[in-house]
Write a structure and sequence with these properties.
The protein is α+β, with helices and mostly antiparallel strands. 55% of the residues lie in helices and 13% in strands. The chain has a domain at 23-78 and 98-163. It has helices spanning 19-32, 37-43, 51-60, 62-80, 101-118, 130-133, 136-156, 169-172, and strands at residues 4-8, 11-17, 84-85, 92-97, 162-163. Strands 3-4-2-1-5 form a 5-stranded mixed sheet. α5 (101-118) packs antiparallel against α7 (136-156). The longest helix is centred in the C-terminal third of the chain and has 21 residues, at 136-156. It starts with a strand and ends with a helix.
């Protein structure tokens, strides 16, 4: 079964998350906290042409951005601690509370950029025919990137989802 999403009182509910999807989501904090230079360069690229301006930006702005990444990673981890098994006991469901949506959007985007960098990908890999030319490792990264992009689409309101204004997360939980 495919991942589904619903709008509940508390936020966004994602269901039928496969073990691979859960593994991907649990990797999000690790990806954005990575000290790998490819990830750091992708998340915090050079922004100024003048060396002095770049040094100033790195000294003053980068530490704040790194704190934001850490804060987002902590929120994502906390929400992932609330993962619940579905009735079939294989797949899971995840609640992203409304107050955490912006952190999730930023964390998912950063994780997608990190996977892109760590797998030596190019824009061509994300083209329609790019999957066929990618290595197996890159193909796995593409699938993970696309899954995270689908979640971002839901959180941004780009994708239609089931609205259950009267329902809550607890209505979906099977005890």
């Amino acid at each position: 079964m495919n991942m589904w999403a619903a709008r509940v009182e508390e936020g966004f509910l994602f269901g039928d998350l496969t073990p691979a999807a859960v593994e991907t989501l649990k990797g999000v904090p690790m990806l954005i906290e990575s000290s790998d230079t490819r990830v750091r360069d992708r998340l915090l690229p050079e922004t100024c042409e003048v060396e002095e301006d770049e040094e100033h930006w790195r000294q003053h702005a980068v530490p704040e951005l790194e704190r934001l990444f850490l804060s987002r990673a902590q929120l994502v981890r906390r929400d992932l601690d609330g993962l619940r098994k579905m009735e079939d006991d294989t797949n899971s469901m995840l609640l992203v509370p409304d107050e955490h949506v912006n952190a999730w959007l930023a964390a998912l985007n950063a994780a997608r950029l990190a996977l892109y960098a760590l797998n030596d990908m190019t824009a061509e890999h994300l083209d329609v025919d790019g999957f066929a030319t990618a290595s197996p490792k890159q193909q796995e990264a593409i699938m993970r990137i696309e899954m995270m992009a689908a979640m971002q689409g839901v959180l941004l309101g780009d994708d239609e989802i089931e609205e259950d204004d009267d329902g809550s997360f607890d209505d979906f939980v099977m005890d």
